[in-house]
Design goal:
Strand order of the largest sheet: 3-2-1-4-6-5-7
Order of helices and strands: HEHEHEHEHEEHHEH
Helix content: 25-40%
Oligomer: single chain
Structural class: alpha/beta
């Protein structure tokens, strides 16, 4: 199904980065197997037939043109993306492999992607969030910068800023849409080297600044054909 209703795509905006002092890059993870969807979620057609991955990159472009896409299949996505987007090959085995490494998950891809980033902060995004809104990301980034420039007495400097998980779930945080500082890399590396691949267990070890002003809908992940049908119905109305 192609969600065919068009909407204006915001141009690359630099107003947010001009008003803050902290450097920012964006990392998009596109390494999932899309087993429940039955086809590559990154290629699902959004407005005007644009793939979901491209929509994600365009939302990120409002904050930074330093964008990396981490994926085991860079050749699959390269023709779809602007030239300024860097594709980083995630060193995972192929989808046909039975290696246990395949189940390492997004945390290892995130760690690998840092090798292509020189900024202090990184906005991490999954590629399967059809309602991602650049204005919410921009307001969040401005809020975080204000918090960093006016630190709370007695509290550690945050290594990440994330939205708390849903009350109905056991998840502590929503890890695949949030801001991370490179000071967390040593802790992340140690976590992975100890054989742990859970985002939540790693996040429990670092200081995180909670952010509450993102609508739940923006963080929605499209995982199944049913999810996709709902997305298309809402967009085309």
């Amino acid at each position: 199904m192609n969600c065919s209703k068009s909407e204006p795509i915001p141009p690359a905006a630099h107003s947010a980065t001009h008003s803050v002092a902290h450097s920012l890059s964006v990392m998009v993870l596109a390494g999932g197997q899309s087993r429940r969807m039955g086809k590559d979620k990154a290629l699902l057609p959004m407005e005007n037939g644009q793939p979901l991955l491209l929509k994600t990159v365009q939302a990120a472009q409002s904050l930074s043109t330093n964008i990396v896409v981490v994926t085991p299949w860079p050749e699959r996505y390269q023709p779809l993306l602007p030239e300024f987007v860097a594709l980083v090959k995630d060193p995972l085995p192929s989808a046909l492999s039975s290696s246990a490494t395949l189940s390492a998950g997004p945390l290892s891809g995130f760690a690998h992607g840092w090798g292509a980033i020189s900024s202090d902060w990184c906005l991490l995004l999954a590629c399967d969030m059809p309602y991602l809104d650049f204005s919410h990301l921009q307001q969040w980034w401005l809020w975080l910068n204000a918090k960093l420039d006016n630190p709370s007495t007695g509290l550690p400097t945050p290594m990440a800023s994330l939205v708390p998980g849903k009350k109905s779930s056991k998840s502590g945080w929503e890890p695949l849409c949030g801001y991370y500082h490179r000071s967390g890399i040593p802790s992340l590396t140690q976590h992975l080297e100890s054989g742990q691949h859970s985002f939540q267990s790693w996040l429990s070890k670092i200081p995180v600044a909670p952010y509450y002003s993102i609508p739940e809908r923006v963080l929605f992940n499209c995982n199944t054909p049913g999810d996709w049908n709902v997305v298309c119905d809402r967009i085309t109305k």
